[in-house]
Amino acid sequence: MQELLVIDDPASASVALDPVRSRILSELHTPGSAASLAGRMGLPRQKVNYHLRTLERHGLVREAGKRRWGGLTERRLVATASSYVVSPGALGPIAPDPDRKMDRLSAGYLVALAARVVREVGQLLRRSEQLNKRLATLSIDSEVRFRSAEDRAAFSRELSAAIANLISRYHDESAPGGRRHRLIIGAYPAPQSSTEPKGKETT
Fold first, then answer.
1. Cβ distance 128 to 134 under 8 Å?
2. What is the mean pLDDT of the chain?
């Protein structure tokens, strides 16, 4: 089972987003049969079988063996991944694209950048799995609490300068065998947790 599957086919995305089928996918983190799923979900076995065939046709579940039960042989299926994400590429020409003319300080531009990450990394991940190679990535996730909007602006300036310095040291346009990497850094207000005191945001 894959850790994560990025869905970029519109038809497969529609299949996975169906409430009943997404529930089936969550139930199939361990192998199960149509009969066992029907019992847990309170649905007719024939209806579960129909959904399973659709999910299998789109590569979202796969056979995990067969088991004799009474006078019948039942197929056991399992989800192809622990979790799924729909690539913005499934939206075709209406998908967000940071290369379009956008305000680079807007929240929409940040979302478009994130959408491109999902689309491009999803494609690279699929290719690396076909080649049975590990995809080299770097992820940094942290939080910073600013005292004021002025501190936030100063942090942005210093961060930009530090990154520009690092890029100037390590970027080599003419290196034989070198590979271009995309670097994206974004920041946005962290969602307020239920334990934090509610108040007016000042930064």
1. yes
2. 90
Pick from 112, 117, 115, 135: nearest CA to 125: 135
Helices (H), 91-148: 107-130
Distance CA 110, CA 188 (A): 9
As a whole number of angstroms, the distance between CA 115 and CA 107 comes to: 12
DSSP 151: H
Give the span between the Cα atoms of 36 and 64, in whole angstroms. Answer: 14
Q: Which CATH number applies to 2-84?
A: 1.10.10.10
Q: What is the spatial distance between Cα 199 and Cα 147, in angstroms, rounded to a whole number?
A: 14
List of residues 6+ apart from 40 with CB closer than 8 A:
27
59 within 8 A of 12, measured Cβ to Cβ: yes
Torsion of Cα atoms, 84 then 90 then 96 then 97, to 10°: 110
The model's pTM: 0.78
The four Cα atoms 94, 97, 101, 107 give a dihedral, to 10 degrees, of 100
pLDDT digits (tens, 9 = 90+) for 21-38: 999 999 999 999 999 999
- DSSP three-state, residue 73: strand
d(CA 48, CA 87): 26
| Domain definitions of the chain by residue range | 2-84, 87-170
Structural tokens at position 34: 């149509």
